[in-house]
TrEMBL record:
SUPFAM superfamilies: NAD(P)-binding Rossmann-fold domains. Residues 1-221 form the NmrA-like domain. This is NmrA family transcriptional regulator. Signal peptide: none annotated. It holds the Pfam family NmrA. It comes from Cellulomonas hominis.
Amino acid sequence: MTGTVVVTGAGGNVGGAVVRSLLGRGTAVRAAGTDPRRLARLHPEAAAVHLDLHDPATFGPAVAGAHALFLVRPPAIATVGPTLNALVDAAVAAGVAHVVFSSVTGADTNRVVPHHRVETHLRSSGAGWTILRPGFFAQNLADAYRTDIVGDSRILLPAGTGRAAFIDVRDLGDVAAAVLADPAAHRGAGYTLTGPQALDFQGVAAVLTRELGRPVRYEPTSAVRYVRHVHAQGRPRTQAVVQTVLHTGLRRGQAETVDPTLERLLGRPGRTLAQYVHDHRGLWAPAP
């Protein structure tokens, strides 16, 4: 594809990875978010633009003249109608030809998660679209799980013995860039994306233990206790509920299947969780 790609959430893990992968292909990128100055520092080769999903007045200027949009749902946003779906409508009205949405595994049938409503709206939007459905991110270890790992050397989750085929967002970024390089070949497709190996959280704790040189344990917990735990860490209750739903789904095997799609699209295997932890092990050093 020639033309500019607007990337939402460009200051976060997923959006940032997509920006870097697109720039690596020589694609013109407009990094969108609430703090353009920070985005300009993070991605000096991209054009930074102000986009606030709670302010519809920012939608039109952010997507004006763009050819494609990469859309990701911020964890704190559960009401997607006036936010993500409204942005899709603004993009279509501005002539954006293709939208790539980063959803989650199972969102096509799971009506509980907000991603389902975005997928449904996107399919009827009139734009070309591709939906990426990654499983659990390796980067969760540096985000949702980091406080517990650093402070208590534990992973507290309501996942039971369920396993997840963790995907590295660097690979998701590469897939998004590949799709946007030839959107016609991926129009109307929904891709389940996983890493090359499924691990339970005992296995995740073992990877961390080996890399960090200190014991890290997995502590299973109940859904109710986990909602309270996440909310007590300062996250909105709606975000805590969504995180809980996704993790309890692991008990039913919702994310344990290793899917070959990522390797097929990239022509190489995905990165393993052990590779991710090795590359970023300084993130979990205990606070002095």
